[in-house]
UniProtKB/TrEMBL annotation:
Coiled coil: none annotated. It comes from Scomber scombrus. Keywords: Cell cycle, Cell division, Centromere, Chromosome, Isopeptide bond, Metal-binding, Mitosis, Nucleus, Phosphoprotein, Ubl conjugation, Zinc. This is Protein Mis18-alpha. It holds the Pfam family Yippee-Mis18. The keyword Lyase does not apply.
Length: 205
């Protein structure tokens, strides 16, 4: 009996060491159970780049991937938790039946800029579609998207291409300056000789 109690105590001790009272926050539990944390997921999302969703007609931004809630491939829709002020939520509720025996109540999502229909918000759904309720469902055909930081093209710098200053380049420049200096001195000497000759001619006359 004593041996059995010792085994049970050792077993509970191992469990307590897994979820210690000093570290029973969600981050620690995620690390122990799944080997990754929410920060790791955020860093991977940042590496992938932020996606901005825009109206397919007037190109006003309507949301971004930070509000991503999922996608519906069968209906060609994406779901966002939040949208920009460029999205208007309709006031009139209407019936919508995406599949047989799944009658829903929805309101339309309308672009503020061009009044285009962008999608819908489910206000009442069957139990199997509860995950769609009160999320912003956009029709993929009515929106476009782009990834921030995806631009790669740059304009070439205007003017001559600058050459790095090296000892060899500096020597060449100094040699050219010396040659130009000698040429200027030579031309100045010739001008003096010409002026002297002209002066002598004037004196003889």
């Amino acid at each position: 009996m004593a041996a059995k109690e010792n085994v049970i105590k050792r077993r509970y001790k191992r469990i307590d060491s897994t979820f210690d009272l000093h570290s029973t926050d969600s981050t620690a539990i995620e690390e122990k159970l799944f080997g990754q944390t929410e920060e790791d997921e955020d860093s991977r999302a940042a590496d992938d780049g932020l996606v901005v969703f825009i109206c397919g007609k007037c190109k006003l931004p309507v949301g971004d991937s930070l509000s991503w809630d999922g996608s519906e491939d069968d209906e060609n829709q994406i779901r966002l938790k939040r949208v920009t002020e460029n999205v208007l939520v309709g006031k009139d509720t209407r019936l919508h039946e995406p599949t047989k025996r799944s009658l829903c109540l929805i309101v339309d999502l309308i672009c503020r800029g061009c009044q285009s229909l962008l999608g819908m918000v489910y206000t009442s759904t069957p139990r199997s579609m509860d995950h769609k309720r009160f999320t912003f469902c956009f029709n993929v055909a009515d929106i476009d998207s782009y990834v921030l930081g995806s631009a790669r093209q740059m304009l070439a710098a205007e003017g001559p291409k600058e050459q790095p200053v090296t000892l060899e380049y500096r020597g060449i420049v100094e040699q050219q300056l010396s040659e130009m200096k000698m040429l200027v001195v030579s031309m100045a000497q010739r001008l003096e000789d010409i002026e002297a000759g002209l002066q002598e001619g004037c004196d003889e006359a």
